[in-house]
Amino acid sequence: MVEKIKIYRGSSDYIVSEELMNSVNIAIALQKPLLLKGEPGTGKTMLAQSIADALGLKLIIWNIKSTTKAQEGLYVYDTVQRLYDSQFGEGDVSDIKQYIKLGKLGEAFVSDEQVVLLIDEIDKADLEFPNDLLWELDQMSFYIPETKETITAKHRPIVIITSNAEKELPDAFLRRCIFHYIAFPAPEEMEKIVRVHHPNIEKKLLEQAMETFYMLRSIPNIQKKPSTSELIDWLQALVVGGIKPSKIKQDLPFLGVLLKKNEDLDLVLNEVYNKTRNKNANSTYIGSSINRFRV
């Protein structure tokens, strides 16, 4: 069935660049999966929700883990339940269909209306996982041998696939996708994103927080750079904590909201120590600062 082409123009709670908007619409028009890469916290997963909200569609999320197999996204045959029923006389075990449970891809195929299907963090699975989905994503159908039934998509879902680049994806899989890399937002774009979540935040507080945020991200050898979502949480903490803008860069309050690894905290503390020592600060201030940063 030919779907009327839908046009995505962003949503009220998601700031989208023109390049990303074009990639979404090209993927929809060409009926190909949109593969999104970018460091964690750049809004890859949230884009799928934004597309669903903007187009008035249901969102189905398939969260991928290291143990996930492609078969699980199609269907699962519950042989254990069937064996139990056969032993204890529960129901008609000859009806195999009642023991077939569709996975997330199967749900998207049988939906009476078009849906947005998010295959989230595909790179967490083993190397064969993407290749195992090639036929189903191309043909929009799969066969269930236990019931001799072919499940064909009633409406082709809008497929969004995210990857944090933990593993390289196969070339055959990449050829079938529209690709977009979501770069980390520049300060101007970041301010727009932040104001979606904190529309009434004080201008000076936001300026000082963002300056400090990008300074932390620029420190060499940070293992996990603070992301957009962590900046949003940190701003909330600063507001709730009643922190004055002038104290943000000096005291680095609630640093644990931004940095999640001990090694990164140590790096930041060393930076602060060196800068403070260059300004001939006394050791008492440095010691108290270290304790405060770790709270």
In short:
By secondary structure, the protein is an alpha/beta fold. It has helices spanning 18-30, 44-55, 70-74, 79-88, 104-110, 129-132, 134-139, 171-174, 187-197, 203-218, 228-240, 245-251, 262-278, 283-293; strands spanning 34-37, 58-63, 75-77, 100-102, 115-120, 141-144, 149-152, 158-163, 178-181.
Layout of helices and strands:
Elements: H1 18-30, E1 34-37, H2 44-55, E2 58-63, H3 70-74, E3 75-77, H4 79-88, E4 100-102, H5 104-110, E5 115-120, H6 129-132, H7 134-139, E6 141-144, E7 149-152, E8 158-163, H8 171-174, E9 178-181, H9 187-197, H10 203-218, H11 228-240, H12 245-251, H13 262-278, H14 283-293
Parallel strand pairs: 1-8, 1-9, 2-5, 5-8
Antiparallel strand pairs: 3-4, 6-7
